[in-house]
């Protein structure tokens, strides 16, 4: 009996500096190798939002070495699930892919206190996604 294929999830937001970085970090952390994770932005920033880095550090996740990446057609084509977070029509559409749009506040320009509730909501959504993908969250 062969193992089920490992799903690939792509998180997309405009700057790839906040929401998509948090979602990718949580999915990587909670998925523990059972999901391939990517993130990208339609107009990537120069660096990840420092308040986002701090908010994730508070829950034991270090993304200080991450950098925003540009969204490519190949990244979408190679993903099973594409989750957008306020990128509008910038994300290419391919039939047969699963698309989700998570409505989340943008942490851009916000301090860590404003980022925490966004972080917590993203963690909740990622845990739900793991359940939907049939891989479950580590430590849940």
Structural write-up:
With 140 residues, this protein is of the alpha/beta class. The chain has one domain: Response regulator (Rossmann fold). 34% of the residues lie in helices and 14% in strands. It is built from four helices and four strands, in the order βαβααββα. Strands 2-1-3-4 form a four-stranded parallel beta sheet, covered by helices on one side. α1 packs across α4 and α2 (50-57) crosses α4 (112-133). The radius of gyration is 14 Å and the shape is globular. The model has no long low-confidence stretch (mean pLDDT 90).
Could you give the topology of this structure?
Elements (H helix, E strand, L loop, with lengths): L7 E6 L5 H13 L4 E6 L8 H8 L15 H5 L3 E4 L13 E4 L10 H22 L7
Parallel strand pairs: 1-2, 1-3, 3-4
Helix pairs in contact: 1-4, 2-4
> How many β strands by DSSP?
4
CATH superfamily heading:
Response regulator
- Using only C-alpha atoms, the radius of gyration works out to 14 Å
Q: What share of the residues lie within helices?
A: 25-40%
Decide which structural class fits the backbone.
Answer: alpha/beta
Low-confidence stretches: none
How far apart, in Å, are the first and last alpha carbons? 27 Å
Overall pLDDT confidence: 90
> Architecture in CATH?
3-Layer(aba) Sandwich
Order of helices and strands: EHEHHEEH
**Largest sheet descriptor:** 4 strands, parallel
Strand order of the largest sheet: 2-1-3-4
Summed up, the domain count is: 1
CATH C-level label:
Alpha Beta
Helix segment tally: 4
Assign the CATH topology.
Rossmann fold
